[in-house]
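[job 0412] stage=fold_complex status=start
inputs:
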Amino acid sequence: SQQGEEDPQALSIQEGENATMNCSYKTSINNLQWYRQNSGRGLVHLILIRSNEREKHSGRLRVTLDTSKKSSSLLITASRAADTASYFCATTRLSSYKLIFGSGTRLLVRP
Amino acid sequence: DVKVTQSSRYLVKRTGEKVFLECVQDMDHENMFWYRQDPGLGLRLIYFSYDVKMKEKGDIPEGYSVSREKKERFSLILESASTNQTSMYLCASSTAGGFQETQYFGPGTRLLVL
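[job 0412] stage=fold_complex status=done
writing structure:
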């Protein structure tokens, strides 16, 4: 079964608004990563947060990790039309070295 | 910047054909991966390699084989293509440390098997 599940499955916002996506997982992890995929393209790594970290920033991105709730959130501030893409969380479990991807959130930023 | 390239963006093959998908990375990464991506199923790992001539099965290796003769190149082979192998195929690479580290993806190959 999938380790990471994103919520919502789809999100539509106006340019300039903030977008928040959530990821929940089932078992203890080593780290959690967020990737972006533009339509029909490969995945691009956005940010990696380790299990002993609670928050991380990169430009307009803010990622939080709550290991007690087994969840993470990705916040994109001041969204742009170019942020339109699918966003995936991926985790590595303590019991395995595999990277498990969720099914993604499709974000549409309307101009 | 890390660059991962895949030999084709789009490929159309017939059932029973042998299909080769090539992936090349230019960052001297030890690890390379092949995934397939299907709607509603996310990315699933087919095979990975942590060194030249070394390979490990992923979650869905049936119907596939791989080859890694050189460090920069990782090939995925569909021995006898079937319609249920129609999918988006993504190659990725990472430094030693395996799945713990960032994976860099190629642009993908969209394969249609008729």
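[job 0412] summary: The mean pLDDT of chain A is 90.
[job 0412] exit 0
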